[in-house]
Amino acid sequence: MTEENITSADANSTNCCDEDSRRKFIVVSTLAVSAVCGVFPFAAGVTTILDPVKKSAGDKEKVPWTKVVPLASLSEDGKPAKYEIILEQVQDAWTTYKNVPAGAVYLTRKGEGVTAFNLKCPHLGCAVDYRSKSNDYFCPCHNSTFGLDGSVTDVKSPSPRGLDTMDTKVEGGFVWIRFQQFRPNIVEKVPLS
Amino acid sequence: MNKFLDWLDDRSGIRSLVKEALYEKVPGGARWRYVWGSCLTFAFFTQVVTGTLLWMSYSPSAQTAWESVYFIQYQVWGGWFLRGVHHYMAQAMIVLLVLHLMQVMIDGAYKAPRELNFWFGIALLGVTLALSLTGYLLPWDQKGFWATAVATNLVAEVPLVGPMLQKIVVGGVEYGHQTITRFFALHAGVLPGALIALVVGHIYLFRKHGIHVKEPRPKRDSYFWPDQILKDGVACLAVLLAVVFLTLYFKGAPLGPPADPSNEFPARPEWYFLFLFQLLKYVPAFWGAVIIPLVFGLLIFLQPFIGASRKGHQFNVGFWWCLIAGAAGLTFLAFSEDQANVNHGAAVREADWQAQRVVQIAQEDGIPPTGAVTLLREDHQNRGRRIFAAHCSSCHRYKGHNGRGYSVEEDQSAPELAGFASVDWVTKLLNYEHYVSPEYFGGTAFKEGTMANKVLKKFDEEETKLLPQVALLLSDLAELPYQEPLEEEQRERYMDIFYDDLACIDCHDIDSEGEGSAPDLTGYGSKKWMVDFIVNPEHERFYGKKNDRMPAFGRDDKLSMEEIEIVIDWIRSKPASE
Questions:
Q1: Residue B172 to residues B152, B176, B205: CA-CA distances in angstroms?
Q2: Which CATH number is A60-177's, of 2.102.10.10, 2.30.110.10, 3.20.20.140, 1.10.760.10?
Q3: Which terminal CB of chain A, N or C, has fewer other CB atoms within 10 Å?
């Protein structure tokens, strides 16, 4: 082998053991230096790949309040009504979009409080309809049905959980909502972020 | 582990491949002069990796290129460092190319039988320069935009097909989406592909002919592994450290203001193209872009044959030394001419100001889908400076310049307006020496007016002592955003001075219905007062018939009301300390 050729060539000169340790030193340093140079370009940018993971870690608390509708326009008999959610500002990487339609909700008034359900069925994300005749929510895709309180009413419903609620508040006569989407088709309600 | 390697070797022959690669004979032993090729390979490897990582966040279009680079630079975790490494490694590559080339020339490694490999090397030089050229357009900032405009205009100098070629490169007549997408495809696809193909050929030919040994041989023969690789590795490490140092020292690569064809910019290429830039000051573009490159290219192509004789080799080496010296000289001239040019310095500072300003707005308000260029175009601070420079600065000054840092050729003939109506400004106004100096009314008819000769000049010692309080009173009327208002009690006391002690009221009204012969000072320096004044200084409330050349900007429609308010807001904002 060439390996041996070199060793025998080296043995021709000076002390064999000095030569061995010198060679060992060279091999180790060469490997070390090569490793540093080889890893460096990746190391220089690995954080940029991890950036989305790092940023989303603190996002859960940052869901902004969005103004939806005057409280007075909701009927007091607890009948749900559908409203479009228009987010004041949406940040997509470097672009800031203003007044972006982001989805819709059903709002139900109970006295001075308001319940909000995301329009999306927790099963696979179809838009749920309110049926005034039977006074319930119905998903036209896979026939899940939900009561006015959002819970699954029919055992044959494929939806693993009731309709997703979101935080609401009434301030200055307006209904505000922290609009969120949730992971579909699992039992727990887990916000997407 | 050994079993696996045996299996792998049996199926792939990897051991003999590695042996082949590592146990290349190095006649005369490992030497530092052979490291440059490996350094360049390392540099290119770094560029491919860091470039691909940048690609993951970069978006090539006229509304997103600057914006995504801004995102990388200011928002992405560690993005500035990644971009800095890519930027400075590109520059290191140029230096390494020159070193590699000069080593090959001096050692005579370009001569037979290595002619072909020499041409491969020259082609690699060209591709690398093309990578640099296409790379600095990609951030779509002012520097990239204007420098590329010059470079692509040179393309048009090519005989017959030039204008067509230019359209192909630019993607049309105007610079826009298609320019960026084309440059990006060249930079990240075509050119690296060509470079890899050429490098494969280059290394194959290098291996075929072996190392060209520079005599005398210092040591006995050794092998590529590990001795030469250690030297190569240490050199690569030095390059790496230099690039990291530059990245940290300059806090990453610069990012200028977003490209804007309506915003002039002192276009300069990167330093390694400065000699060509300077050359174009002396020779016609056709010579610079076509004749000289052709002649030099042909000569370089023939160098392996010229070098066959001893004299020829000396000529070749001398040629390259002269080329380097010439380029260095031209680069030096380009630098020193810019250094000596006051307006170039101002233009660079103006661009820096814009770059900082647009980043500040982007961080505060975000970037709209129309792109960052609209942030600057609509920014009142930026517009205020521009309106002042265009409409006010031929007579007035702002800190002695035109509001944007440029010196003005005309003599100053109206007051300095930085800090207008501030306590300092009014205090000086009420001092005779300042009043009649060019800084205030020295360039106007008011130098010989009543205020100068019959009022300020005539104040006795007691009266002069009261002037600072009048200055406080007048400045308070301006309600400047950066000054605290006076206490009510102070205001009354100073008003007494204005009315009684100094009897200013005889000519100037404040909150009175008189018919003073001098400008009405009710709300002096406030936004409303300034709007009224700039709309029509000839109004009897102000100078009336005594007005000396101040245009009625509003009455005569020289500026829109919006523009008047923008420039006033800017004049009334706190002057930045320098």
A1: 12, 9, 40
A2: 2.102.10.10
A3: N
Neighbours of A148 (CB within 10 A): 18
Cβ A91–B366 below 8 Å, yes or no? yes
Residues B402 and B314 in one domain: no
Distance CA B188, CA B131 (A): 9
Contacts A45 to B, Cβ<8 Å: 49-50, 53-54, 78, 81-82, 85
CA-based radius of gyration for chain A:
31
Smallest Cβ–Cβ distance between B230 and the set A33, A41, A50 belongs to: A33
Neighbour tally for B177: CB within 10 Å:
16
Strand runs labelled E in A71-187: 81-92, 95-110, 113-118, 129-131, 136-138, 145-146, 168-171, 174-177
By residue count, chain A amounts to: 193
Return the structure tokens found at B139: 């951030």
User: Starting from the edge strand earliest in sequence, which strands make up the sheet with A168-171, in order?
Assistant: A66-70, A174-177, A168-171
Total number of domains in chain B: 2
The string of pLDDT tens digits covering residues A66-123 is: 999 999 999 888 889 999 999 988 889 999 999 999 899 999 998 888 999 999 999 9
Q: Which of B300, B319, B307, B325 is nearest to B107 (CA)?
A: B307
Residues of A in contact with B248 (CB under 8 A): none
Nearest to B239 by CA among B462, B39, B435: B39
Query: Which residues on chain B are in Cβ contact (under 8 Å) with A56?
Result: none
B107/B183 same-domain check = yes
**Reported confidence tier of residue B233, pLDDT bands at 50, 70, 90:** very high
B380 to chain A, closest Cα gap in Å: 20
Residue B217 burial (CB count, 10 A) = 12
Q: What is the 3-state secondary structure (H, E, C) of A37-63?
A: HHHHHHHHHHHHHHHHHHHHCCHHHHC
Domain that holds residue B93: 35-327
